[in-house]
Amino acid sequence: MTTRVADRRPLTLRVVMSSFLVLWLIVAAFPFLWTLWGSFKVEGDFFSKADWLNALTGPLTIAETGGSFTSSGYYGAWVQEEFWRAAMNSLIVVVCVVCISLTFGTLGGYALSRSPYRYAFWLLLISLVFRAMPPITLVSGYLLPFFEWNLWGHLPTAIIVLVAINQPFTLWMLTSFFRNIPKDLDESAMMDGCSRFQAFRHVIIPVMWPGVITTGLFSFLLAYNDFAVTAMLLSKENQTMIPKIASFLGTTQTKGNVMFAVSSVISVTAPLFLLVMFFQRQIVSGLTAGAVKG
Amino acid sequence: MKHKTFLWFFLPSGMAMFLFIAMPIVSVLTQSVYAPHEQVIREVENCTLFGCSKATQIDQEATRALRDAEPMGRFVGPSIYTDRNHLAFAEIAEIWRNASGHGNFFGQVTNLPFYDALSFTLTYTALVTPLSLAFGLIIALAVNALPRLFRGPVIFVSLLPMIVTPLVGALILFWMIDARGVLGAALQALAGDPGLSIKASTPLMWTMLIVYGVWSSAPFAFVIYYAGLQTVPGDTLESAMIDGASRWERIRYVILPHLLPLTTFMALIKIMDNFRVFEPIVSFSAGAHAKSLSYFIYSDLGGETRLLSSAAATSVLTIAGIIVLISPVLVRTWHAFGRVRA
Questions:
Q1: In chain A, which among 196-215 make CB contacts under 8 A with chain B?
Q2: SS3 label, residue A70
Q3: Across the interface, do B311 and A114 touch by the CB < 8 Å criterion?
C-alpha cells in the first residue's frame, strides 16, 4: 500500500517533501552539533564578533590554549564551580521522583482503572485540571508555609513536590494502560481466593512493566527538566543542574563563565541523547498511547 | 472494586495531590487576600539641651510581635487583585476615559504589567499551538513517504528538540541567535544592519520566542500524527483513489478527518503547555521585552523582596485563565461520560 502510493507521487511533490524534511532535520539537529563543537572552544571563538567561521576553526582557542580544542569550559564548570555537586543532587532527585511517583501511580492508576463508580471519573477530571496548572502557580503557594515550617531548601521537599506535580500525568497514563489489561485476569485470581492486593501483587505486577517503563521515562523527563520547582524550592547548596546553569547565566560578566554554561548545557543534554537513543520506541509509544486512547 | 479497597489503593497518590496541589491552591487563595504587615511606626521625642524634637522610627519589637501574632499578614480583601499590578480596574477606567480610539486603548492597557504578561501568554499560545501542529503534520506526511530504512534515524533527530530540557534548548538557540552568535551574525548580514540585536528589539524577541516554541513542540505533534498516519484505513484510501479523488482530496477527506481526534487531544495538551511558557523567557533573558504570566509570578517570587501576595494573586488569575481555556474540553469530557453512563 505505502509503496504504491509513494510510486504515484509526482516528482515535484517528492522533491518538495524531501527538501522540507532535510531542512527540518538541520533545524532540529544543527543547534546541538554547533553547541557541542563550540563547547570545546574559548568564549572569544564561540561568540565571535569578528567572523562566524572562528567558531569552527578557533584561532583564539589555539592562541590561548595551544590546541584547537580545550576542555577548560568543562573543567571550570565541573570542578571549579562544582557542577558535579548539582549533578549528584539531580541524580538523587530524579531517581527518587521516578520511584515514588511510579509506586503511587501504579497503585492509584490500577484503582482508577478497576473502579466502576462515578468518583473515579471525577478524580481523573480533577487531575486533568491539576495537570493544566502551571507549576509556578503552585510554587507561590508553597513558599510561605515551607518557610514557616522550615521545609524550604531541602532535597526531600523538592522530591515530594515533584512527585505530586507528576501524579496527574502518571495517573492518566497508567489508568489508560491498566484498562488495556483484561479485567478477567485479576478477577479470576480473586475468584480463586486472592484478596485484591494479592491479585495486584501476583497477577498485575508481572505484566505491567511495559506501561510502567514508558510512564517512568516521562516522569524522568519531568523531574530532570524541571526548572520552576527546583529553582524556587532548593537552597544554593542543594541546587540541581538546571537551576545551576541558570545561575551561571546570572554571573556572565566574568570572562569565560558563559563557557561554563555552554559546557554544562552539553553535559545536561548528553544523558537525554542516550535516553532517546535507547528508549526511542518506548517514548514514541508512550506519546501515542496517551493520544489514541485519549 | 470496593470503596474501601479503592481508598487504600488511591490513598498515596491522592494524599500527594491533596497536600501538594490542592492545599497550595488554598494557600495561594488566602495569600492573595492578605498583605504583609506594615512596619509599626513609633513617634519618639528626642530632647537635647536646645529643646525637644519629634522623630518617627520603626518599632522593631512591635513589628515582630505583630508579625508573629498574625503570620498571614493583614486582611486586605480583593484589593491586591484590583491594584495596578494586577487587574488595574482604576487605571483601565482612566485609560478608557482618555484613550483616543481602540488601538490606543489596547496599547495603553498592555502597558500595565498584568495585561502585558497576559497578552504575551495568549499570543504565544494562540500562535505556537496551531503552528506546531501544522508543522508536525507536514513532517509526519514527509516521513511517512520515506523508505522504512530512514524513518528510525529521522524520528531520533526529530525527537531531540522536544526531549531536551526547555531551559537548555532555549539557551542553545539563544546563543546562536545572539548578536555574537552564528545566526545573529547571519541576520545582521542579511538585514545589512550591524547593530541588529535580538536583545534590543521587542518584535524580534517575540518572534524568536515563538520560533523556539514551534521548534520545541512540533516534534510532539509529528510523533502523534505519524502514529495516526499508520492507522489510516487502507480500504478507504483505496476506494477514494478508485473514485478518482486527487491527492489533495484524499488528504482533505480521508486523512485529516482520521487525524481530527488526535488534533483535539494535542491542542489540549499544547494549550496547557504553551500557557505556562516560562523557561525560554529566562533563557533568552527576555524579561524586558516579553513577560509571560509564569514569568511574572517567578519574578515576583524571586529577588530580594519576595512579593508573595502579588505572586499569589497572579497565580489565582493564571489558574482561572487556564481553566477558562480548557473548559470546552472539560465540559465535553463530562458530557461524553454522561452518555456512557446513561
A1: 196-197, 200
A2: coil
A3: no
A262 and A40 Cβ atoms separated by less than 8 Å: no
Mean pLDDT confidence for B71-96: 86
Grid cell, residue B89, equals: 480596574
Q: How far apart are CA A219 and CA A214, in angstroms?
A: 9
Nearest 5 degrees, angle CA A272-CA A273-CA A274? 90
CA B12, CA A160: separation in Å to the nearest integer? 11
CB–CB of A136 and B20 under 8 A? no
A139 and chain B: CB distance < 8 Å anywhere?
A: yes
pLDDT at A113: 92
Burial class (CB in 10 A: 0-12, 13-18, 19+), A35: buried
What's the CATH number for B118-314?
Answer: 1.10.3720.10
- Average of per-residue pLDDT values in chain A: 87
Round to whole Å and give the CA distance between B297 and A143: 12
| Angle, CA of B121, B123 and B128, to the nearest 5° | 95
A87: distance to nearest CA of chain B, Å?
14
> Could you tell me the CA-to-CA distances from A157 to A14, A97, A137, B142, B300 in Å, in that order?
54, 11, 17, 46, 21
Domain-by-domain residue ranges, chain B?
73-111, 118-314
- Local confidence band at A193 (pLDDT 50, 70, 90 cut-offs): confident
Which contacts of A288-292 are long-range, i.e. CB under 8 A and separated by 24 or more positions?
A: A288/B223, A288/B224, A288/B227, A288/B228, A289/A173, A289/A176, A289/A177, A289/A214, A290/A172, A290/A173, A290/A176, A290/B265, A291/B224, A291/B227, A291/B228, A291/B262, A291/B265, A291/B266, A292/B227, A292/B228, A292/B262
DSSP B200: G
Q: Provide the 3-class DSSP secondary structure of residue B71.
A: coil
Nearest-CB residue to A21 (from B143, B278, B337): B143
Q: What is the pTM of this model?
A: 0.89
Determine the distance in angstroms separating the CA of B297 from the nearest CA of chain A, rounded to an integer.
Answer: 7
Q: CB–CB of B324/B118 below 8 Å?
A: no
Rg of chain B, C-alpha, whole Å: 27
Stated as kind and residue range, the H or E segment containing B43 is strand B41-48
How close A149 comes to chain B (CA, Å)? 12
Cβ atoms of B217 and B274 within 8 Å: the answer is yes
Mean pLDDT score, B337-341 = 63
Residue in chain B nearest A223 by alpha carbon:
B165
Q: Is the ipTM of this complex over 0.85?
A: yes
Superfamily of domain A87-293: MetI-like (1.10.3720.10)
Are B273 and B283 a contacting pair, CB within 8 Å? no
A144 touches chain B (CB under 8 A): yes
